[in-house]
Design brief:
elongated; two-stranded antiparallel ribbon; 33% helix; 2 domains
Length: 209
């Protein structure tokens, strides 16, 4: 009987934030040049720091919100000052990809793996995180959904309360940007039978154009 042993993976390691220093080095031939040298929190140079441990599948740079800004298999390419660097396994990276068009950028480290932060948001948080639209983008989105701008103006003019009507007109006619969480969108949705989910879809389509 052949005994099978589990494959032991190198556990995630937090290298801490790197700081950079400009240092002068001598090149072959005696010429001097200045380079950036990166150090860990304890003052250990980055090369010595990562070589002190077995290699990781990926070296990930995180911002202060634990969002991924870089994920490289080569630790030489993971020297980013003022960012926290962690070493992780492929399992901890999940299905996210790196490089041009990679899906990992902006994702979040939750302490045990990389996750899409939107998967853990409430619907209200997702709407608050949607990008703003310019007045033209928002009006074009309404037109694409067969809602003409003059129809919106007419619907607002039909609001009985004078102050509420005036504020809605201000929000419709004089914004610099439209936000998905603007109260005006609730009024437009109610007037034109647009559900919150339909507005979400309209908003997302407009933001991607």
């Amino acid at each position: 009987m052949v005994r099978r042993f589990p494959i032991l993976r190198n556990p995630m390691h937090d290298f801490g934030k790197l700081t950079s220093r400009v240092e002068t080095v001598e090149l072959p031939g005696g010429r001097e040049t200045q380079i950036y040298v990166f150090y860990g929190a304890g003052g250990t140079e980055w090369h010595d720091l990562y070589k002190s441990l077995p290699p990781f599948d990926f070296y990930v740079a995180l911002d202060d919100g634990d969002r991924v800004v870089s994920m490289e298999s080569n630790p030489e390419h993971s020297q980013i000052a003022s960012h926290r660097i962690i070493g992780i396994s492929r399992e901890e990276a999940g299905d996210f990809t790196r490089g041009p068009g990679g899906s990992v950028y902006g994702m979040k480290w939750n302490g045990s793996r990389i996750v899409d932060p939107t998967d853990h948001m409430t619907i209200e948080q997702k709407r608050a995180a949607m990008p703003d639209l310019t007045p033209r983008e928002f009006r074009d989105a309404l037109i694409d959904n067969d809602i003409m701008p003059d129809q919106v103006t007419a619907a607002i003019n039909g609001i009985a309360d004078a102050k509420a009507r005036a504020k809605a007109l201000n929000a419709w006619e004089y914004p610099t940007m439209f936000s998905r969480t603007d109260h005006l969108l609730e009024q437009i949705g109610s007037s034109f039978d647009l559900s919150p989910e339909a507005i979400d879809a309209m908003w997302t389509a407009a933001a991607q154009q």
